[in-house]
Amino acid sequence: MSFPVEELLPATRRALLHRLAVGQAEGRTPSLVGAVVRGGHLIWSDGRSMIDDHRPDENVQYRIGSLTKGFAAVLVMRLREEGLLELTDPLERHLPGTSVGRLTIAQLLSHTSGLASETPGPWWERTPGALRPELADVLGEQPMRHPTGRRYHYSNTGYALLGALVERLRGEPWGDVLRREVLDPLGLTRTTLSPRPPHAGGFAVHPWADVMLPEPLEDTGVMAPAGQLWSTAADLSHWAAFLATGHEQVLSPAAVAEMRRPAAQPDGPEWTSSYGLGVQLWREDGRVLFGHTGSMPGFLATLWVSEEDDLAAVVLSNVTSGAPVPVIAADLIRIVAEREPRLPEPWRPLPEADPELVALTGPWYWGPSAHVLRLRADRALELAPMGGSGRGSGFRAEPDGTWTGLDGYYAGETLRVARTADGAVSHLDIGSFVLTRAPYDQGAPVPGGVDPRGWQPS
């Protein structure tokens, strides 16, 4: 259930503008636009610029660089939802003739393919795409830099391949597909491949002097899916809402959630960055954010979403480097989250509950480890360790009476309720792990058996 979006307090709005102003001044960027989204709605936006009495607003276009990758990834995920491909498919199956056909679609989406970060030849972001008219020109003679699937290595060339894959399966330019399948349904009328007024010009600022140099604005050709798009803070606010919830005409909530999960588990509990499927993940001050950063000569952009806070932020600037745009966007979320934290929705009982599922809830034991099983909406289950540490997961109900793990250790594993001959519940089976109502219950088929003498004092 959604509630009316309340206007931010004046002190919060002032704090947001102050952060934007500091970012523009200290980052020495000709202009900076920021926006905050809550509950899927734009609730604040403002801008600062080097021109007196001028504030670029949420409808001014900026180049968004690698935020483009998320749009390209959605087109690929749509093909998967339609059954036209699997993420585990090798590229060769759908886009034959490249020198890297063994790479899987998932590896390209998640930057684990081992491909080079950039194209051979002149810097692709600052030169015409006509210099690289074919995929072979993008890949070069030695496109690989690392063993496939072994490590994360950001690859712009991988997204050129994904754009070509979309064109091959749809039979038309990827930009036309993007407009029809994503931009139009989401109402992103100011997101385009080429700039449309009003739009910002891109500049480089000298590192040691307060002078500027215009950057060239090139059509990047086959590299466009890696960073070509232009957009506005208003359009990207809608995009942030989509990344949080999905859209029935574009991509299902489950598929969008899959995109924003780490493709490989981050290293350790203190991880700071990771990557999903066309979506970056970043941890700032303990807050997990997803979205993407972007840069092209003359422009920096960032979009972050905090699912826990029901907040998103967009920051766009027209400078090549120097402005800490990702940090500014994270700070906009933090300012609102701390000053006006999200109100939890009122507790309400489930609209209906199967008595047999209610009977399953409560304590369960994996060996001597205590867990608790809770019933959620739509027959979903949630298993959590009682002591705060241990293996747990949410589980989605399946039509066959089983449940599938959604996260944690049991992600993708099947939970089954085992019953005795008379129909009574015997135990839970999760991927061969037996959970019983008592620690090492002698009446359940615990693997390895249970000592018949039971629990002993010594």
TrEMBL record:
UniProt keyword Nuclease present: no
Residue intervals of the Beta-lactamase-related domain: 23-337
Molecular function per GO: hydrolase activity
DUF7586 domain mapped to chain residues: 354-437
Pfam families xrefs: Beta-lactamase, DUF7586
This protein's UniProt keywords: Hydrolase
InterPro entries attached to this UniProt entry: AmpC-like (IPR050491), Beta-lactam-related (IPR001466), Beta-lactam/transpept-like (IPR012338), DUF7586 (IPR056008)
SUPFAM superfamilies: beta-lactamase/transpeptidase-like
Name of the protein in its database record: Serine hydrolase domain-containing protein
